[in-house]
Amino acid sequence: MKKIRLLQKHSLFCLLIALCILMGGIAAEELSPEERGLQIAQAAWEGDTGYGDSISELYMTLRLGSGQDAKRELRIRTLEVSDRETRAMVIFDTPADVRGTALLSHSFTDKSDTQWLYLPEIRREKRIAGGGRSGPFMGSEFSFEDMSSQRVEKFTYKYIADEVLNGITCHVIERYPVEKGSGYTKQVAWLDTKHLRVQKVDYYDRRSELLKTLSSHGYEQHEEKYWRPTTMEMLNHKTGRSTLLEWRNTKFNNGFTTRDFEPNALRNAR
Question: Full-prediction pTM beyond 0.90?
Answer without folding.
Answer: no
